[in-house]
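User: I've been trying to design a sequence by hand for this structure and keep getting stuck. Would you show me what you'd pick, starting by listing the structure so we're on the same page?

Assistant: Good idea, let's start from the same input. This is the structure you sent:
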C-alpha cells in the first residue's frame, strides 16, 4: 500500500527545509500540530491542513499514482507513529494542563511549562530562523503572524494558560480610560483579542523591565486596565524578577504579568521567592578550549578600550566589560553590546591562527566573546537543546528569549493556584 512505501525521511526533509521557511504557509504548521495533538481532543483544529500537506507530499513523491482521500488519511495515521521520534524535548506523556505559546521565539516558555507537565497545543512565531530552532527541539513548526485571522483561527478552545512574551509598544490612547480599543494596532491588542475569545483560565505575560515606565506608565496602565476591566481577569500587581535569583548567573530583569479568570474565584497570588542557588559565571563556561573565532582581534580590543576611555573622560560608565569567573553576567541582548558587555578571560587558546577575516592579530590577553552555548546556559537552556543556526542568529535568539528558570518558577505558582480549583 502507498502508506507502507512512503519515505518518512523525505517527508521530514520537505517539511523542515522547504516549508518551514515560509511564514505565510500554515499547512506545515498544521501538520506538525496535528501529529502532536492527535490524542488530546484539539486535533480537529489542524486536521484539514495536515491532510493537505500529506496529499501534497504524496503527489510530489509518487506522481504516477492516484492519491485518494482514503490513502491520504491512512498515510497521516502512519506518520503519527513514525515521525518525530527523536525530538529532544517531547511533550509529557500524561500532561496535567494545556497552554499556548505566543511570540514563541525558540521555546523558552514551552520548555519551562513542559517541565511542569504542561502540553503545548498551539504555537506562533514569525521569524523563520527561530522556527527552525523551535521545530528541531520540539518537533513542531510554529504558525506565523499572530495578527492574521488565518493564524488565530487555528487556536484551539479549552486550553488552560496563555503565555506571551509580547513586544513593548506605545498605545495611541484616545481617551482617558485607555481600554481595549485604544490598543488597536499593537501586538498586545492581538493577545487581548485571543484572551477575549478563548477565555483561558490563566494568562502569563513577560516583557522588558522598561514596560513599567514606558510612555510615563501609560502603556502598563492600559494593559492592566484591559485585563482587569475589559477582559474581567484578576491581575495582581506585576512584578520584576531577576534571572540571577533563579539559578543562572545573569543579571536580567523582566516584568511578569499574571492573571486569572475572575469566575475561578482566585483573588490572591504570590510571585516566587528567589532560590538559594548560588551560581557564578564559571558554572556556565565551556569546559574545553573554544574556537579561535570567539577571541577578539588586537584591533577590536584596542577599539573597545578607546571607546570606553572616551566615555569615562565624559563621566560615563558606558563600554565593554569583562566578567570575572566568580561574577554575574550582564543581560544577554541582541546587538553587539550584548556580547561586548559580556566578555570573558580565557587563556586556554593554543591555536592563534584566525579562521575568520579579522583586522590585526588574535589578542594574547585571552579576551573572548561568550559562545552561543554559554548564552544558552545563561538563559537556563539545557545542553541538549540543539543550536542549528549560525552564531549570529543564535546570539539573537538567546538574547530575545526568556530566562527559563524564572519562567518556570512563576508558572509553577500559577499551576498551583489552578490545581486548587
Amino acid at each position: 500500500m502507498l502508506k507502507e512505501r512512503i519515505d518518512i525521511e523525505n517527508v521530514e526533509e520537505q517539511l523542515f527545509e522547504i516549508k518551514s521557511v515560509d511564514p505565510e504557509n500554515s499547512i506545515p504548521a498544521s501538520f506538525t500540530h496535528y501529529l502532536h495533538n492527535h490524542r488530546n481532543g484539539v486535533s480537529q483544529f489542524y486536521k484539514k491542513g495536515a491532510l493537505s500537506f500529506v496529499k501534497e507530499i504524496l503527489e510530489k513523491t509518487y506522481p504516477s499514482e492516484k492519491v485518494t482521500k482514503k490513502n491520504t488519511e491512512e498515510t497521516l495515521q502512519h506518520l503519527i507513529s513514525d515521525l518525530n521520534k527523536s525530538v529532544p524535548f517531547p511533550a509529557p506523556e500524561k500532561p496535567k494542563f494545556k497552554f499556548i505559546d505566543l511570540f514563541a521565539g525558540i521555546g523558552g516558555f514551552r520548555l519551562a511549562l513542559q517541565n511542569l507537565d504542561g502540553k503545548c497545543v498551539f504555537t506562533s512565531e514569525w521569524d523563520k530562523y527561530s522556527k527552525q530552532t523551535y521545530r528541531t527541539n520540539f518537533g513542531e513548526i510554529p504558525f506565523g503572524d499572530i495578527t492574521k485571522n488565518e493564524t488565530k483561527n487555528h487556536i484551539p478552545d479549552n486550553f488552560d494558560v496563555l503565555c506571551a512574551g509580547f513586544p513593548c509598544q506605545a498605545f495611541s490612547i484616545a481617551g482617558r480610560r485607555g481600554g481595549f480599543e485604544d490598543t488597536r494596532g499593537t501586538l498586545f491588542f492581538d493577545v487581548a483579542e485571543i484572551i477575549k475569545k478563548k477565555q483561558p483560565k490563566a494568562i502569563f505575560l513577560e516583557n522588558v523591565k522598561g514596560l513599567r515606565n514606558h510612555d510615563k506608565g501609560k502603556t502598563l496602565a492600559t494593559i492592566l486596565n484591559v485585563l482587569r476591566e475589559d477582559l474581567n481577569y484578576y491581575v495582581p500587581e506585576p512584578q520584576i524578577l531577576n534571572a540571577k535569583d533563579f539559578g543562572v548567573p545573569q543579571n536580567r530583569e523582566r516584568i511578569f504579568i499574571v492573571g486569572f479568570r475572575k469566575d475561578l474565584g482566585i483573588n490572591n497570588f504570590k510571585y516566587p521567592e528567589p532560590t538559594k542557588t548560588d551560581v557564578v559565571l564559571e558554572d556556565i563556561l565551556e569546559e574545553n578550549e573554544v574556537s579561535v573565532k570567539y577571541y577578539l582581534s588586537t584591533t577590536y580590543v584596542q577599539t573597545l578600550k578607546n571607546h570606553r576611555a572616551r566615555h569615562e573622560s565624559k563621566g560615563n560608565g558606558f563600554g565593554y566589560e569583562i566578567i570575572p569567573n566568580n561574577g554575574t553576567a550582564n543581560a544577554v541582548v541582541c546587538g553587539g553590546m550584548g556580547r561586548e558587555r559580556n566578555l570573558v578571560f580565557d587563556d586556554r587558546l593554543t591555536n592563534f591562527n584566525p579562521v575568520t577575516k579579522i583586522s590585526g592579530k588574535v589578542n594574547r590577553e585571552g579576551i573572548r566573546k561568550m559562545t552561543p552555548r554559554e548564552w544558552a546556559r545563561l538563559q537556563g537552556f539545557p545542553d541538549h537543546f540543539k543550536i542549528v543556526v549560525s552564531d549570529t542568529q543564535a546570539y539573537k535568539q538567546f538574547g530575545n528569549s526568556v530566562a527559563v528558570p524564572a519562567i518556570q518558577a512563576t508558572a509553577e505558582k500559577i499551576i498551583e493556584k489552578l490545581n486548587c480549583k
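That's my pick for every position. To get oriented when you compare it with your attempt: The longest strand covers residues 253-261. The CA atoms of residues 28 and 295 lie 40 Å apart.
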